[in-house]
Amino acid sequence: MDTPGSAEQMQDDEPKDIAERPQWDNQLQYLLTCIGFTVGLGSVWRFPYLCQTYGGGAFLIPYFIALVFEGLPLLHIELAIGQRLRMGSIGVWNSISPYMGGLGVASLAVSFLISLFYNMIIAWILWYLFHSFQSPLPWRDCPINLNHTGYVSECEKATAVNYFWYRETLNITPNIETSGSFQWWLVLCLATAWCLVYICFIRGIETIGKAIYVTVSFPYLVLTIFLIKSLTLPGATDGLIYLFTPDWETLKNPDVWLDASTQIFFSMCLGFGGLIAFSSYSVQKNNCERDALIVGFMNTFTSIYASIPIFAILGFKANENFNKCRNWNILRLTNSFNIGNENITLENYDDWFNHFNHTDPSEVESLNLKTCNLQTFLDESASGTGLAFIVFTEAVIHMPGSQVWAVLFFIMLFSLGLSSMFGNLEGILTPLLDLNIIPAWIPKEVLTGLICLTSFTVALIFTLGSGNYWLGIFNNYVGSMPLLIIAFFEIISVVYIYGINRFNDDIEWMTGKRPNIYWQATWRFISPLMLLVVCVAYVVVTAEKRPTYNAWNPDYVNFPLADVQPYPEWVYAICVLLSVLPIVSIPLVAFYRFMGFFKKYIMNRTNPNPYQKE
């Protein structure tokens, strides 16, 4: 239904406090802030991981479909509605309809919960950055055991890189039920991360705008340096072939389509409320359609651009492991068949192996040679944090000048994380200020400090020995289903409650032209339908299988392979709670508003003239 009132009338009736709202210094500052918010850590490790998991180039197909028919339409809506109404998420959806007020609360809750674990990742980045100045790098070699008779057993079974991550950094427990103690070094890093965020964010867009020039541009400089360097590494071509060679069979797997949709919303920060907050500080006469296309393009471009050096390094690492495996086999064959050293080389290994296997197969079988397959090493993936703190750090130690590469890499990650944290906090702060529930005598600096202090206190759970397990839960359950539901109701609210014709009028007033048929078709039909199908499919697929997690357990019989364990019942309940808690405000607020309306209706029926004396 279309709500009465044109864009011109709304402009004339605009409240004075909204008209005097702070604005960005210039359009470039606004665009860079939006790009920095959407181009975050998810573009550098989550996107490449999903590409690797789902057969390289095949994942790009559902990803681009989700981008075109779900991501861009909602991105345009968020930038346009925030720019037009000049409010944060709660104010925007409450002004569209009081029944949709819970939508803004849901976005605020998502931003708060995601900022908790997002800044913990920044704390890990700081920990590695501090250690990157050491020579040699501390994750290059295993430490000596207490008896000084050899290396630490856990490190020998795994690798020095894995040991530094799981034991020296996380001091991880063997399962999620064993909480462990607070790791004081992680607590200090987390406190440092929140202090840095507070300093950069202390006065909202006034300080964000100054910092964003560095935090957005620097990652592209480092990525370019890594791109040039990675392409010169041996085996880089194998990694790139793996990235761009699609495995078409994976498209039959429904999980690939669900993960593509959730990646779009998580990567582009849709449903967080941050983009609405940022656009509310933009001038109203601004081409929001152009901004949406630029931000969407830069997000996708960065994901692919970052994947090229990452897969080149993965190809390098796979070749290193592949050659190490074959060298081990060469040593066994050389000793067993009394062949002179260096007769069997990596180049002629296959010929020698086939020869021995044909002439003396029983002897070859008794050697228990390793199965060396380059494709297998390329398939070995590290999800999420593992891509940065295991795969990259292992590759760095093989590069000349490893300290320089390590420092550059972790400063890049820090810049990406910091610019995204600006949007997360803006998605919390702006709605609170727009609600006018914060007393006027509390300065914005104090309110920002209280938000950071509260977040730091709650996030201490991630500094426990079991903290990495909890971070995985937050990442999986807060950054998926809630975002899809919020996105669905955002489109429904704008198109069918605010009114698509009124929204078209607003965009024409702001940009000078009406939205074309692509926007009309996606907003009215395609996007809501696709989001509804994805939401239902996500619930069905998730309900069919009991969730598990990978535990780092040195006592596991197949260690260092992950000990896959099911979540305990109480942890599973928390998983469900984290999926429901951010969005429960949507039906609760709608029900509360309805009851208020119903009560008022009953009172009017029983006493139609309240001024009539008894």
From TrEMBL:
In terms of InterPro entries, this protein maps to: Na/ntran_symport, Neutral_aa_SLC6, SNS_sf
Q: Where are the transmembrane segments?
A: 30-48, 60-81, 102-130, 184-205, 217-244, 264-281, 293-314, 404-425, 446-471, 477-500, 521-541, 570-595
* SUPFAM superfamilies for the chain: SNF-like
- Protein's name in the database: Transporter
Gene Ontology cellular-component terms listed: plasma membrane
Q: Which domain of life is it from?
A: Eukaryota
Where found?
Membrane
- Asked if the Swiss-Prot or TrEMBL record annotates the protein with the keyword Glycoprotein, the reply is yes
The topology of this chain with respect to the membrane is:
Multi-pass membrane protein
